[in-house]
Design a protein that fits this description.
- By secondary structure, the chain is of the alpha/beta class.
- It has 16 helices and 20 strands.
- The protein folds into three domains: 171 residues, Rossmann fold; 100 residues, Rossmann fold; 122 residues, Nucleotidyltransferase, domain 5 (2-Layer Sandwich).
Length: 442
């Protein structure tokens, strides 16, 4: 986390220095002080030194890591000794100065009156997906107010942390937090998922705040992943039910029915590669409609392409990895068409793709790079030696091996980019000189 502590008075600077020192556990930053007495802080840069223990003692308070929810806070004791902060002067006019900082930092911590902060940040506020966390502390060190971006920006959690540095009280006013109800954006953040619609996220959260019933709809593969399942089990209640869409099983071999291709190793359970025979028991629009009949709002957690109802919202987990290959100088529009067709046939939401990978020989293909730009992802290069270790699991080509040194590209690249616990969601889908594969993490 990149942070800034901003002060205007001498008393605020005293507390600000304490906060800055405590924030070193969260990352590096800048401590801004009025030019009138910045000379009293002669060092240009402060960095922690010595051994890190479980607590830090300051002149006005004590931060005890053991008292904080360490599984929810981004506290990194190992990096603490490497983090540092610079001291810099506050510039005038103050509102313009705040504008310069607003999108430079992940969090802005002001030690001053809330009114000053509100008037200063007002022209720069855009949306809850873009704005930094804004924390306001009073000069006496009594409170730490989460003023902006309490959920996605991490302001609520950070206000608890900052208050803990100097022994103050965090002030959190978001309805879902004070009522103890589920918040869609916080759930998405906790599982690293993208939100299909911020408006629908707000609507479903409002339903939960009104103490109405929420159904979380999730497929079996995702729920069985402890990263997701454990978090969801913690929020189950009489008002939050979890409905799991289970797959049909083949009684003989136990693999997922209708999705096993005998050309693959048993590790690579997925959709058939030639006709993209999509399993009919994945989460679908009908499941959402049925869930809506028995609840007031629905949260769908799925990588599939789903059209939520007016009282539902989809969270899209980042669990798909794209492997891609193409003939030399294949135009971007051809690559995009093949990619779109494969995703549409497999009913995949493209926002679930978290990585794109190919081999070094294709690393400068303009069409592939343009696809990465569309997906807002960097291109990952997979080494040929790594591909050779698993290429026997996939259909290969003697011609391709003679030309580039390996028998297959898209499938091995997709698998290597994901985790070991996964399967091939889309096998080698080849068309117009382009090959597309998608690995799904489990």
């Amino acid at each position: 986390m990149k942070w800034a502590v901003i002060t205007l008075t001498k008393g605020a600077a005293k507390l600000g220095k304490i906060i800055a020192e405590g924030m070193l556990r969260r990352g590096s930053g800048t401590f801004y002080i009025s030019e009138r007495f910045i000379d009293e802080y002669s060092i240009d840069e402060y960095s922690s030194n010595g051994n890190v223990d479980k607590s830090i003692d300051f002149s006005m308070g004590k931060l005890e890591i053991k008292d904080l929810k360490s599984d929810e806070l981004e506290v990194d004791n190992n990096s603490f000794i490497e983090n540092k902060y610079a001291i810099a002067p506050v510039k005038k006019p103050f509102k313009d100065f705040v504008g310069e900082l607003f999108y430079e930092y992940d969090a802005l911590i002001f030690v001053m009156a809330t009114g000053i902060v509100c008037r200063s940040i007002a022209p720069y506020i855009q949306s809850k997906t873009k704005d930094p966390a804004i924390i306001v502390c009073d000069e006496a060190g009594r409170h730490a107010i989460s003023l902006l971006s309490g959920h996605l920006g991490g302001g609520n959690e950070l206000s608890e942390y900052v208050a803990g540095i100097y022994g103050g009280e965090p002030v959190i006013t978001t309805a879902s937090d004070v009522t103890g109800s589920i918040a869609v954006d916080m759930l998405a953040k906790s599982i690293g998922a993208k939100i299909s619609s911020m408006e629908k996220a707000k609507d479903v959260t409002a339903i939960a705040v009104d103490n109405k019933k929420i159904c979380i709809l999730i497929d079996e593969n995702t729920y069985n992943n402890p990263f997701y399942g454990n978090k969801l089990d913690k929020i189950k209640s009489d008002k939050v039910i979890i409905k799991v869409k289970y797959k049909k099983r083949n009684r003989n071999d136990g693999v997922l029915n209708n999705v096993f291709d005998k050309t693959y190793s048993t590790q690579n359970l997925g959709y058939k590669i030639n006709n993209l025979s999509v399993n009919d028991d994945i989460l679908s629009d009908n499941d959402v409609k049925n869930a809506n009949k028995n609840s007031d709002g629905v949260i769908i957690i799925s990588e599939n392409k789903i059209f939520p109802t007016s009282t539902s919202v989809q969270l899209i987990p980042q669990i798909l990895h794209l492997g891609i290959g193409c003939k030399k100088d294949t135009p971007f529009d051809v690559i995009l068409n093949v990619f779109d067709e494969a995703c549409d046939l497999a009913k995949i939401d493209k926002r679930a793709i978290s990585s794109v990978a190919t081999i070094e020989l294709k690393s400068k293909e303009k069409g592939i790079l343009a696809l990465c730009d569309i997906l807002n992802l960097e291109l990952k290069i997979v080494g040929l030696d790594d591909i050779r270790k698993i290429q026997h699991c996939y259909k290969g080509s003697d011609f391709v091996e003679k030309t580039i040194g390996v028998r297959a590209v898209s499938e091995p690249c997709a698998q290597i980019s994901g985790n070991k616990n996964g399967y091939m969601r889309i096998g080698r889908y080849a068309k117009d000189g382009v090959t597309i594969s998608l690995w799904e993490d489990l």
